[in-house]
Amino acid sequence: MTDILTRWKRRAGLSCLVAGMITLAGPAAAGETTYDPLEGFNRAMFAVNEGLDTVAIKPIAQAYDFVVPLPAKAGVGDFFGNIADVRNVLNNALQGKLAEAGSDLGRLLINSTVGIFGLFDVASELGLEKHDEDFGQTLAVWGWDSSNFLFWPLIGPRTVRDTGGWIVDVYTDPTWYTLNKSVATRNSLVALLYVDVRASLLPSDKVVEEAALDKYAYVRDAYLQRRRNQIFDGSPPRLQDVLD
Amino acid sequence: MKKLIVLVFAALFATLVLAQEAPDVLVKRVTEEVLDIVRQDKNIQNGDSRKAIELVDAKVIPHFNFAHMTALALGKEWRKASPQQQQQLTAEFKTLLVRTYSNALTSYKNQRVIFKPFRMNPGDSDVQVRTEVDQPGNKPVQLDYSLEKLDAGWKVYDVNVAGISLVTNYREQFGQEIRNGGIDGLIKTVAAKNKSLEGNPAKAAGK
Predict the structure, then answer these.
(1) CB neighbour list of residue B176: distance below 8 Å, 6 or more residues apart
(2) Per-residue pLDDT tens for B102-131?
């Protein structure tokens, strides 16, 4: 009974969030600079995140990067990469990319067994390429192609669409879902994933710091370009060249 | 005298061959030359930005078209700039790009560059050369170059890292500066940014 109740509560929470998302989404962005109507809020959150990063997150990621030897780090990356293949199978299928879904399912089976619970990416060695997809990309393929930008503390840059997509990704991620029974294990895994992702971004910190005239705008536009690239699976239609 | 004539012809021939070098061959050759040097240069690996910039200046810069890059970064505003403004901005933007992205070489850790299959039609004058950077313990990163055919040979006018154009990623920031202080304001801002990076001795020495 309590189980049903918590599940119902969670679902209600999710629908509230989705409803919130839709309200936030507002009219679709059309012009060049209208994709960031919440810039004031976003810049404030960006500042909060920069503070958190400087004080806590970056030092932890640096310590992790320094202490953990490369083979172990590669194992951590492969382990979470294997879990992410669950999401890849699901979203490739939802986008009608059945060959890719099948190939990623093959990856998942091989890496979970021969690759010892995903600690080794044997499938890539065998030439099975990974096809990264998430629910935000699925929503884009389904037609929600432009969405306003949002910056969250801790989670970082997203769009309204990708925030909704991210929530669905979390709900379909075995790390959060099937490990619900052991909260401690789940929380440690989520923390490890978080630190691992942050550590993988360390080399680009200096480049962004030096390259950007306005770090917020630089990060925002880089995020939006990268998402566009992901949605079009690495070959987005080329934007018109002003000199042509 | 005869020797000199032979030398001149040899030089002419060499330029001709270089000019005709196919875009994918060019990218591959320059990438391998640069990586060979970085692999052997402990100073660059230890973060010596100045040496990295020297390397990029010598090997990479001749194959880039910075005027086109600056025009791309500016968008529509490029046509409104005077030739002199265009020149000044190109010079400052070049300094910024070279400095910041040369630094990427100093974080070299046994990355491998894989060249994707290249397709091009005989008459093409605008192509993309696609590569992937594989790094141990990390996801591979997509690295694509856009090249155009000029009289002087193929020149790179855009670089995409993981789908992010290092050039057009500046468009909004440049637009913002132009709205605030016009093209001259933008030139001043980029110049100031370059000065601040130069003026930091820790960064210049790579310590």
Answers:
(1) A214, A217
(2) 888 887 878 899 999 999 998 899 999 999
Would an 8 Å CB–CB cutoff place A236 in contact with chain B?
A: yes
Q: What is the pTM of this model?
A: 0.83
**Count of residues making up chain A:** 244
The answer to whether the CB of A111 falls within 8 A of the CB of A78 is: yes
CB contact under 8 A, A229 and B142: yes
* pLDDT < 70 regions, chain B: 1-4, 6-7, 9-19, 199-207
Interface test with B, best of A229, A231, A238, A244 (most B CBs within 10 A): A229
Q: Which of B99, B138, B163 shows the shortest C-beta gap to A200?
A: B138
- Measure B168 CA to nearest chain A CA, in Å: 9
ipTM value: 0.83
d(CA A81, CA A100): 16
- pLDDT score recorded for residue B202: 47
- In single-letter form, the type of residue at position B194 comes to N
Whole-angstrom distance, CA of residue B23 vs CA of residue B2: 35
d(CA B174, CA B73) in angstroms, rounded, equals: 7
pLDDT (mean) for A227-239: 89
Q: How many CB atoms lie within 10 A of CB A184?
A: 8
SS3 assignment, position A37: coil
Nearest to B73 by CA among A218, A236, A151: A218
Do the Cβ atoms of A80 and A196 come closer than 8 Å? Answer: yes
